[in-house]
Amino acid sequence: MPQRRKDADYLLRRIPELYRDHIAKEVANQLNADPNVIDGPITERIVYNTLNKIRQRDKAESEVAVAYKDKPWTEQEDATLKGWYAKGASIPMISQQVQRSVPSVHARIKTLNLANRKITSDQEQTIRDMIRNSKRSLKEISYELGVKYSAVRHVSNKLKKEAGVTNRHSSNTSLLEDGSLAERLIRDALVKEYGDAVVPWQHNRNWSGGRGWQIDIPIEFPTGLKIAVEVNHVRTHAGRRNRDYAKRHYAEELGWFWIPIWFGDELTKEFVAEVLDTIHHIVHDLQHGDKTYYESYMSNVEELERQYYHWDQPLYDPKEHAKFGNPWSIEDEDTVRNQYGKVSIEALQTNLSTFRTRHAVIHKARGLGLTRGTKNFSPEEDDIIRANYANATEDELLEKLPGRSWQGIATRASRLGVKRRDVWTVAEEEILRDNYATTSDDQLLGLLPGRSLDSIRTRAHRHGLKKNGWTAEEDDRLRRLYPAEPRSVIEAAFANRSWMAIVSRASRLGIKRIKPF
Predict the structure, then answer these.
(1) Mean pLDDT calculated for residue range 334-347
(2) How many other C-beta atoms are found inside a 10 Å radius of the C-beta of residue 294?
(3) Can you give the pLDDT at residue 204?
(4) Strand pairing partners for 228?
């Protein structure tokens, strides 16, 4: 049981007095400077716990709980809250900006009617129909109907309760392939405007010299003008601030004009239209050699970014912390595009100008938006499986079916109803019984051609055979040699035993070395 603070009575009296005009953080700071507080530092949690104890005590005595409210909100605090809330900032971030507790900010947002989920019955029915009958995400529904995301989510939660499920069907929109909703909307509009100058999403990492950095929407004009549109969410990108800033710094060194676009939770058509107008304005001026509007826009953006980036910290460049292979050539990328999924990874590796590991090839294919679509087995391949799968070894089957993996062959055989040979001959059974206990795995594979090691072990287990069972003669030999003979002599005396098996057996028999090896 935790001990009661020595200054508990003083805190019960002093905290309510301070809390009438100060927030919990300020109360804690004042109490930490109070000489009457003698039993350790005061935290915000202690302030809240003390107030809760007082409420419970007063309610028990008078059956009426005393409400201890925050100090009144000022117009400046309300303006700050509205500004950050409109940007889509998180509640904890707003709490830091206004120096209020998170519950206080939640209550104020409700009081100011900022989190308004009110929609008409027709709108709710439309949302219900779209959730039930389409694969759109909640964000997409919010954007298309022009209603708050919180309202759409509220309707979705109601549907879950009505249906008795915990999860709604997922959207068919893949963030891994197309980016966020804001990014996709902006990209689609820019493609209509600038056509092939907008670099496809699959190639937006090629500029970074092996760092793996991507530009959300790269635009490269024939004139040499390079525009990098980076779509940032004010909350999710805050955790990557230094990496993102290093990426921008590196891109600008290569001649890219960086255009950061910041958006919040409420993505609206008006916002997208405003963003597109800004990008068109910047591109038009830069194409005519005028940087005035771009520099003005960037000065405003940098002021916003100072609230998210730690400018006093060094830039994070992954190339300084990790080793990357040589950049991929255009020819090798074309090879991957043309052959990935059509030939085996091993064959594809041999067709590249620079050696790449299996993982590197797969990673590059994913970056190019490729998937290894399953190549259907031909009737000829099915005939080969039917004729050879039961008796042929894995290597023989792989040789007869080039471009196929063993797992793919086994899966196809299962679908065809073809099984591996499982009937052991009398001769094989005798070889297994006579040799399993004392023969090495490699020797067993030689004695039983066509049998895999897993098959041999499974068969031995069915017969109750144990691997490496030590005989009485071997134990006597071990007792005689192990205490003093050198390791080479001992290993030669137990040619079919590993050194670890010998040491383990000696330990079980209690045999110790007289002198070290």
Answers:
(1) 85
(2) 19
(3) 67
(4) 218, 258
Output the six-digit token pair for 189: 């509009």
Which is it for the CA torsion 398, 404, 407, 408, positive or negative?
negative
Q: Let me know the angle formed at the C-alpha of 173 by 169 and 174, rounded to the nearest 5 degrees.
A: 110
Location of structure tokens 């100058």? 197
Cα–Cα distance measured from residue 391 to residue 459, given in angstroms and rounded to the nearest whole number? 16
- Edge to edge, what strands does the sheet with 226-233 contain? 217-220, 226-233, 257-263
Q: Quote the tokens at residue 55.
A: 């409420």
- SS3 state of residue 376: coil
Question: b/e for 296-328, b at 16 or more Cβ within 10 A?
Answer: ebbeebeeebeebbeeeeeeebeeeeeeeeeeb
- How do residues 385-411 score in pLDDT, each as one tens digit? 888 888 777 778 888 888 787 778 888
Residue-wise pLDDT for 242-264, tens only, equals: 566 777 788 888 888 988 887 76
- The residue whose two tokens read 């549907």 is 159
Pairing of strands 226-233, 257-263: parallel
Percent of the chain with pLDDT over 70: 80
In this model, does residue 176 exceed pLDDT 50? no
Tell me, yes or no, if the pTM score tops 0.90.
no
As a whole number, the mean pLDDT across the chain is 78
Residue 14 has a CB neighbour count (10 Å cut-off) of: 18
Domain spans, the chain: 121-163, 181-318, 323-368, 379-416, 426-463, 472-509
Those residues with Cβ within 8 angstroms of residue 234's Cβ, 6 or more apart along the chain or in another chain: 87, 88, 89, 262, 263, 264, 308
